[in-house]
Amino acid sequence: MTSKSGDNKKNAFFQKLATEFAGFLIGVQILLKALDKMKYFSQYPVHVCFLFAAGLFVIAGSIYNAARRKESGHAHALFHIVEGVVIITSALILFEEGKFRMPAFLAFIGCLYVMMGMIGYKLNKDNYKQYGKSILRWVGSAFMVFGLTAVIWNWNYDKDKWVFGIGGMFILIGALYAFFAGRLISIFEKAEKSKAPEAAEGD
Predict the structure, then answer these.
(1) DSSP 3-state of 180
(2) How far apart are CA 25 and CA 23, in angstroms?
(3) For residue 198, with 0-12 CB atoms within 10 Å meaning exposed, 13-18 middle and 19 or more buried, which class applies?
(4) Which of these, 129, 73, 80, lies nearest to 109 by C-alpha position?
(5) Domain extent at residue 192
(6) Using one digit for the tens of pLDDT, what is the confidence trace for 109-137?
(7) Is there a contact between 83 and 30 (Cβ–Cβ < 8 Å)?
(8) I need a labelling partner for 93 at 20 to 30 A (CA). Which of 38, 46, 161, 182 fits?
(9) What is the dihedral sign for C-alpha 141, 172, 65, 108?
(10) How many independent structural domains does the chain possess?
């Protein structure tokens, strides 16, 4: 039982790590954009400071969400919503400065994060059996379409290596959600069951 519980925890951890790694890359990209804007700091001090803070926030949030051991109710879902709003705001700042492709990319990712947060807020252990698989497949399909669009678009225009990396991560995560939804739900069920004996031992 202990071995199976440990395996379930490892599977859940690596699944969570893969999801949050895409967010980590997005945070790094925002930080790089902030560094690039440093030469215009005298003109746009608030914009540059916000981009630095946004990049650090997204990176820190991704690391925290990947490393945390205990679920915290709706806190994770709400954090994703905040994260999405921060990314969208960063995109709007870059739009104002005449950029288009990367801000459009970030804006779409921000919308996905908000959507993930809202789904996570509504989805819980009482209704995930009814809605879990269809939601994961829908989100996974959206991730794959977005990732493929970003990679093809980037190949034809900018050839930005960060867009290739982030787009590739979205394709992989999307494939995981779309084609292994049943397996992921099963891992979630086992992880939930493994918490019950631990909670009883703690009491």
Answers:
(1) coil
(2) 5
(3) exposed
(4) 80
(5) 2-202
(6) 888 788 778 777 776 666 666 677 788 88
(7) no
(8) 161
(9) negative
(10) 1
